[in-house]
User: Fold this.
Amino acid sequence: MFAKIRGQKTGQRKPKRKSRGRSGGANSSLWRQIGANVYDVPVVRTRAGQQAAALGAAVVAGVGAGVWDDFGIVDEVSCVTDRNEPIKEDALKYERLMAKYKRGCELLGTWAEKEKA
Assistant:
């Protein structure tokens, strides 16, 4: 999870405008809220549930075959059942924790390099 967060927060990945939850943790309002706060984007749960992978495959095939111009069709065919907005104060706490995590990684890398020598 931290690798995903680190990638998004450092600009290695394009930040999303929202995240879609499906099955598992998406069934929990608490986990959706944590995800919204960590990534600082709204997290929505859709009715697709366990069928989200099949829906995604169908949309990829449809876009690839030229049936649809882009992946925006997902918003049209996927009904949102719940939405969790990030709580800004909590998102800022996660941002500060990420800075500490990154600093810890740097220090650990420096230590490992010294141990090699």
